[in-house]
Structures are given as structure tokens and as C-alpha cells.
Amino acid sequence: MIRLLVLFVVILGSSVSTAQANEFFDKLIDRARHSAMQAYAKEAPVPDTAKLGYDAYRGIRFRPDSILWRDSGSFHVEFFPTGFLYQTPVKMYVIRRGPSGTPDGAVALSPSPEMFDFGTAKPPAKVGFAGFKVTHPLNGQAFDEILSFLGASYYRPIGKGQAYGASARGLAVDTAQPRSEEFPEFREFWLVEPAPGDTSMTLYALLESPGASGAYAFTVTPGARTTVDVDARLFMRHGVSMLGIAPLTSMFLSGKSGPWRDDFRPEVHDSDGLALWTGEGERIWRPLGNPGALQVSSFVDNNPRGFGLQQRERRFDHYQDGVAKYETRPSLWVEPKGDWGEGEVRLVEIPTPSEYHDNIVAFWVSKWPVEKGKPLEYRYRLSALSDEAALSPEARVVATRQAPVDGNTKARRLVIEFEGDTLTELPEQRLVESNVEVNGGKLVRAKIDRVPGSTNRRLFIDVEPESRRAAEIRAYLTVDGKRVSETFSIQLRP
After folding, report:
1. Sequence-distant (≥ 6) Cβ neighbours of residue 20 within 8 angstroms
2. CA–CA separation, 77 vs 400, rounded Å?
3. Which of 95, 212, 237, 276 has the greatest number of C-beta atoms within 10 Å?
């Protein structure tokens, strides 16, 4: 059984109203504000669990009789122990309900080795909480994982029929900068006990890093699209070179355009592209790659409507991996709430030789510098989805390939395939044309073909990059001069 130690009481009324939730969050915001005025202190690890290696840690199971809210029909919570890479403990609290259903205060959860089945590993004398996962009857009557928090500020939501893939983070600090990257940590969590019949669950978190302190409110709603509504309030301990808001992390090892590998699997990736919906309403698709060197791309915008790392390839035969099941990995989509102002969506692609390393990061960066003492506020909805077509009402890119150009050793050929209702509904005689822009290179040819047996179109673009510069390419389809597709965007390096 989970042992509860009363820590402090939060005054709540007869129900968890918006006002009462705001009252608790306001107190947490004040605590983060005060913390940012103090020197950063790193949390001490739990030494007894350092001996738990990869295999031993993977074999640990949380005991069913220790599940939080195990008699609830809506949400259960299980905890991860400290060990392996997760040495830093987090503090866990519950805002619980009394016998009448009325919330009666907050209590601390006290970890114990007895909560876990360590399998063949020797149980440590002392253990801490490293994180937790939330389960819910998502795919039937059995409880399935819908959200997990484990390691630094990482968390992963999944929807119906999905398997864990891309991750989100609370905050990114100095990613891909000359200055060493910070990895902020969620130090404390408060889980709000759901009422019978609740379809959403709320939790709060305190974030700490050398550069910032933050208060977070999360509301998770499971479903075909599991959503997490995020309210983040940040206070800077010092100025930083780069502050990444709503960061997403994923893996891309190989795809249709390479790199070549000696592998039976045609493609290996958790996400295959960055999708953007700009403040002006343009929808952009940027395919991901596994570059030979660190590559950073920026998409300048004002008040973005959405961005995310998507997995558009949804057929098993594209991957041929019955274990990893990459076709079930979720697409993560960020929808800002309110005005985020001027800035950019930044994409970082890192070389990787292995599918076991996340090498893709995307986040929002404000145009304005981040200064010590400056308070920041960001609200957004994060969705884990697999109905990517619903985000692209126009024709969308479903495949990107590259090839050499016969007779021209300087040129590369891009083959971009579009599909969508705007193409399916066209009379066969209607002419589909393209608008192609090349910056930093020479456009040799652009041609459109209809895919045999389909209403899809393939756009062939032959480009000669200039010298050692990367060629920036943008392209979309038109009918009678009207745009009918999203914009394809890529950097083509010589």
C-alpha cells in the first residue's frame, strides 16, 4: 500500500472549481517566482539505486496493490523508481478527496522498495520516485498508459491505438548553442484526485534549472487524440542564449530519401516531418533527415497557430518492424493559446547512427531576449494524434524522395508526392501546376506527374546548389493559379 504522509493542507471548497484550481496554481506560481530569486541547488541522487543497470531497471514492475486510485474507474497512477539513468528523485503529492468526495487537502507520497517488484535484481535499501505514468481505459476496459513523466522535464502522451514515440519537454534551454545545454527538471508534482466520472485529470509541477524556475499546470484528456493543456509560468534566474518553448523531441534514423543502411527495414523513425501552421494561415511541411553534421533550421513567424513533429507514414509495410511498430507512433501537435508574438519555430537535426538516440528537436523561440528576473507566460494544447490528414485540409506531402539527375552531376532531384481531397475531387482534365522557389541554387526543371492508379501527384524538382551553400526550396501545387496544397520546404545541401 502507498504510505501517505500529510505535508500541508490546501483550502478547497466543496468541489474542484476553476477558481479553487487557480488558487492553488497561484500559490505555486508565487513559489516559482521566489525560487528564481535564490541560487540554484541541484537535487541529491539516491545512491542505493545507482547499481540498477539497463536490464535490471527494465525488469522492475510496480506492484498492483500500490497503484494510486486503484479502485477508481477513470484514472490510475503508477510510479517509476529511481535507478539506471534516473537517479534524481522527484517529490510526489496528491490533492485528495475526503469520504464525501470533498477535497480535503494535499498529502505527500512516501516511496518504499516494497512498492516495486525488482525481479532478479537485488532490491535497494532505499528508493525514490523518478516519475510516474497515468493509465485509463483507453482501448477497452483494461487500463492503458496515456501519459508518463520520467527524466528531467520529459513527458509523453499517447492516444487510442498508439505506442510511445516522440516526447515533449517542459522547457529547452540553450539547445544547439555554443553554451552547454541545460536540462530543466520537474522536481515536484501534485496530482489532483479525479472525481467519479471525470474524463480529464489535472496535475501541477514545479520546474527548476540553473537558468529558470517554473510553475506548470497540466490537464490531460485521453481519447483518439489525447490532449494535454499546458499552462507554464516561468521566472528567469539569469539570461540565456536560447529559451525553447513547448519543445518536442523525436528520432529519425532513415527514410525514403536516405541515408542508406544495411537493414531489412525500409524506414526507421518516430516522426518523419515538421508541420507548421503559421500566423498568416500557411501550412508548411518540412521532411526530417539524419544529416552528416548538426543542422538547424528556422521558420520565422508571428503568433503561430500550430507546429509539431508528425508521423505521416501509417502503414506497416513502410517499416517492416513488428516489434517497434513505428506506424503506431503518435504525432505531437502544439496549438498556442493567446498571442505568442514574434519569433520562430526552430528545428534541430543531429546526426545519429542508432535508432536508440533521439536526434530531432523542435520548439518555439521568441524574438525578444530572455533576461534575468523576466516573468514569462505560455499556454498551449499538446495533442498526441494519428489523424494527421485532419490538420491539412489542402493536399499534403506524403512522401519525399531524392535521386541524382542523369547527365548532370551537379544537380539533385526531389520527388515530392502530394495527396488529399483537393486533388481527389478535381476533374481529370484539370491541370495541376506548381510554384517552386529556390534560394541559393538554380532551378533546372519542375514537372508534375499523376501517380498511376491514384489521384496523387508527384512533383519532380531538379536543383543545382550553388557552391557550398545549402539551397532553400519551397514548393506548392496550384490549379488555375489557386494554391491547393501545403507548402513543401527543405534545405538541399551540395
Report:
1. 12, 13, 103
2. 41
3. 212
Cell (9 digits) for 286: 518540412
Which residue type occupies 88? T
Asked if residue 266 lies in contact with residue 410, where contact means CB atoms within 8 angstroms, the answer is: no
What is the maximal distance between C-alpha atoms in the chain?
80
Tens digits of residue pLDDT in 229-241: 999 999 999 989 9
- Rounded Cα distance between 96 and 73, Å, is 16
325: left (phi over 0), alpha (psi -120 to 50) or beta: left
pTM of the model: 0.93
pLDDT tens per residue, range 312-358 = 999 999 999 999 999 999 999 999 999 999 999 999 999 999 999 99
C-alpha cell at 276: 507548421
Picking from 369, 371, 485, the residue whose alpha carbon sits closest to that of residue 422 is: 485
Closest CA to 117 of 60, 155, 41: 60
Dihedral sign (CA 123, 127, 131, 132) = positive
Domains in the chain with CATH codes: 1-238 (2.70.98.10), 241-369 (no CATH), 394-492 (2.60.40.10)
Tell me the pLDDT of the chain averaged across its residues: 91
> Angle at Cα 253 formed by Cα 252 and Cα 255, nearest 5°?
85
- C-alpha cell at position 207: 520546474
Q: How many CA atoms lie within 13 A of 5 on its CB side?
A: 8
What's at 438, amino acid-wise?
V
Other C-beta atoms closer than 10 Å to the C-beta of 300 total: 12
Q: By C-alpha distance, which of 415, 263, 392 is closest to 326?
A: 263
Could you give the 3-state DSSP secondary structure of residue 107? strand
How many other CB atoms sit within 10 Å of the CB of residue 143?
20
Q: How far apart are CA 202 and CA 219, in angstroms?
A: 4
Q: Is residue 384 within 8 Å of 225, Cβ to Cβ?
A: yes
- Residue 407 Cα distances to 132, 400, 461, angstroms: 58, 22, 15
Which residue's entry shows cell 528567469? 236
CA–centroid distance for 52 within its chain: 28
Element housing 32 (H / E): helix 18-36
Report yes or no: 422 and 266 within 8 Å, Cβ to Cβ: no
Measured CA to CA, the distance from residue 228 to residue 330 in angstroms comes to 14
